[in-house]
Amino acid sequence: MDKKNYSKNPICAAAIAVAIMFASCSGNGDNQPANFEDIPDSLQSAPLTLSENVVNDMIQNISSPVEMANQIKNSGAGFDQSVLNDAEKMKDYSTSFKRALNLGAYSADLGYINTFNKNSVVVSYLLAVKDLADGLNVGQFLDFNTLSRLAKNSTNLDSLKLLSVSSFNEIDRYLREQKRSNVSTAIVAGAWIEGIYITCRVIEQTNDKELINRLAEQKDIASILLIILNNYSKGDSNFQALVSKLDQIKSIYDNVKITTEFGTPETKEVDGMLIIEQNEITHVEITDEQVAQIIEKIKETRQFIVE
């Protein structure tokens, strides 16, 4: 059994802030398409009524794929292109459901790529993102030429972040206006699974204890995402299949023990203002067998997404 105490770090800003920038349009009791394989215009009521604020709060607790990528880099693991979804496979995704899931997956891949400043491969993944976004009728919000130019130069990463955030906020707003929050939810799910999948691959190679703790910490996030996905599963076989995969992951996580201890608050000055920070220590108990089981189910779910 692995038991370790570690300070809980805040979510890092994304190098490509794609997946999480879709978050605020998820849920809120919007309607869902009767068949997500078709153009998502014909809608029916979702089985749950989740307020926008509730779902937004849930999504804000979902780890950014770039946060996970930063943890991987900090572990000393090098860049491994083989863990990414092949950018050429974007041609195979012909349904709205697959396009949304893999738009999220490629977004997580971009976060990983940019964390390691691998400019040589970034353009092909930007192309994949643009192609899938076009297929979902939201590509007009992506300035591909500018994104590509900024991505090729590591000194422009701050500008790249700002443009990415701006672009995907526009997509978020558009999807909400079009009553297509189910699309956003699928994008977020694809991004989260891909980010955790990459982490699992590195754990298999390194057995890094900090990454294992980060994997364990996804317990609450798996539950949050499952609640949101369930909101769109009634009468939709695609979401039902994804929910089934996530439910298997959650079942394993149910036996992982995570507790939070509140430490002594600290004060610090930021821009002339006194800020009080509440320190938290998270205690994780996870066995090697549980790690192996989670990795297996994450791989299965990721295969479902990218196949």
What does this structure look like?
The structure is a single chain. The protein is mainly alpha-helical and 307 residues long. It has one domain. 56% of the residues lie in helices and 11% in strands. It has helices spanning 18-21, 52-60, 65-74, 96-115, 119-135, 144-151, 157-177, 181-206, 209-216, 218-230, 237-253, 288-306, and strands spanning 2-7, 32-33, 43-44, 257-262, 266-270, 273-277, 280-286. A three-stranded antiparallel beta sheet has the order 1-7-4.
List the helices and strands and how they pair.
Elements: E1 2-7, H1 18-21, E2 32-33, E3 43-44, H2 52-60, H3 65-74, H4 96-115, H5 119-135, H6 144-151, H7 157-177, H8 181-206, H9 209-216, H10 218-230, H11 237-253, E4 257-262, E5 266-270, E6 273-277, E7 280-286, H12 288-306
Antiparallel strand pairs: 1-7, 2-3, 4-7, 5-6
Helix pairs in contact: 3-4, 3-8, 4-5, 4-8, 5-6, 8-9, 8-12, 10-11, 11-12
Rounded average pLDDT: 76
Measured distance between first and last alpha carbons? 34 Å
Regions with little confidence, pLDDT below 50 for 5+ residues: 1-48
Number of strands: 7
**Count of alpha/pi helices:** 12
What is the global morphology? globular
Order of SSEs: EHEEHHHHHHHHHHEEEEH
Taking strands numbered 1, 2, ... along the chain, how are they ordered across the largest sheet? 1-7-4
Radius of gyration: 19 Å
Helix/strand-derived category reads mainly alpha
| Biggest sheet architecture | 3 strands, antiparallel
Strand fraction equals: 5-15%
Helix-residue proportion: 55-70%
How many structural units, i.e. domains?
1
